[in-house]
């Protein structure tokens, strides 16, 4: 078994084919977890497993890492993932990281209903569906666990062109707190991370002028590396954070 702060644990990471999700798979596996990389883009999730994870030995009784295609906004797809985990690993995942997310930016006055729904469906409903399915499995198995939902600084402060995205991310913070209150007695902890600006494909779409403007407000004067937030996620997944639940943790260079 790979030694580490989450050794022998089974982790499901959504949005695992890119950015923060991919970095999270890397750090969780380095710290000994067996990782299920789930993404709408199966090839990208597979690439994460092949090139970014530390090989899991199977001595902890679990099968090795795996990649799965998942659309978090589709309850049938989430149930299919749950069933696959049950069959393949014969143990519930006790670490769940909701990192799948999208943006469809536009001014409030121009935003289509379709773009509003798309963002809410993936970022908020998707996190709900995955959290609900895997929390249920933990409760049934009477196992403690840790769920980490990736919100955003925008969920707290808002942003131009992001009424849909900010609403979804504020919803994730509120949902996290409610779930933490419900699940605390079962020792299932639920926390939200509010990243600032990280170098990922999602942020690559933001115009350089906007990024430069943001960086002027970041005391650490740079964007974050996805691995820096993955370390915090892994800490929250581990027993090192055993008395932290319902928290909304800023990881933003001081922005
Ligand atoms: P990214 O675009 O690099 O990766 C997102 C991944 O989610 C992609 O692999 C994509 O295929 C997957 N995905 C999209 N829709 C999906 C669906 N319906 N089902 C399953 N997978 C789906 O983005 P990122 O920068 O790594 O962002 C990860 C999370 O962090 C997102 O929730 C994002 O909102 C949040 N976040 C990112 C930043 C940042 O600076 N990068 C800042 C704040 C919050």
Automatic annotation (TrEMBL):
SUPFAM superfamilies: NAD(P)-binding Rossmann-fold domains
Record's keyword terms, sorted: Oxidoreductase
Pathway(s) per entry: Lipid metabolism; fatty acid biosynthesis
Sequence similarity: Belongs to the short-chain dehydrogenases/reductases (SDR) family.
Name recorded for this polypeptide: Estradiol 17-beta-dehydrogenase 8
UniProt organism field: Loxostege sticticalis (Beet webworm moth)
């Amino acid at each position: 078994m790979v030694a580490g702060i989450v050794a022998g644990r089974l982790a499901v990471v959504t949005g695992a084919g890119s950015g923060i999700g991919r970095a999270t798979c890397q750090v969780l596996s380095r710290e000994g977890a067996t990782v299920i990389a789930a993404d709408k883009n199966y090839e990208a999730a597979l690439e994460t497993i092949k090139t970014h994870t530390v090989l899991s030995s199977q001595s902890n009784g679990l099968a090795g890492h795996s990649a799965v295609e998942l659309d978090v906004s589709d309850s049938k797809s989430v149930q299919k993932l749950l069933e696959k985990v049950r069959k393949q690993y014969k143990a519930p995942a006790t670490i769940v990281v909701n990192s799948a997310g999208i943006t469809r930016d536009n001014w409030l006055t121009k935003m289509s209903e379709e773009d509003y729904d798309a963002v809410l469906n993936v970022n908020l409903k998707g996190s709900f569906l995955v959290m609900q399915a895997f929390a249920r499995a933990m409760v049934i198995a009477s196992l403690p666990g840790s769920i980490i939902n990736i919100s955003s600084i925008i969920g707290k402060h808002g942003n131009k062109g992001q009424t849909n995205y900010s609403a979804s991310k504020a919803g994730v913070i509120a949902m996290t707190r409610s779930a933490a209150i419900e699940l605390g007695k079962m020792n299932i902890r639920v926390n939200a991370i509010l990243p600032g600006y990280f170098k990922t494909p999602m942020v690559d779409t933001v115009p350089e002028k906007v990024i430069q403007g943001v960086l002027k407000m970041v005391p650490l004067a740079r964007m974050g590396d996805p691995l820096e937030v993955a370390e915090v996620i892994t800490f929250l997944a581990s027993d090192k954070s055993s008395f932290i639940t319902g928290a909304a943790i800023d990881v933003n260079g001081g922005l």
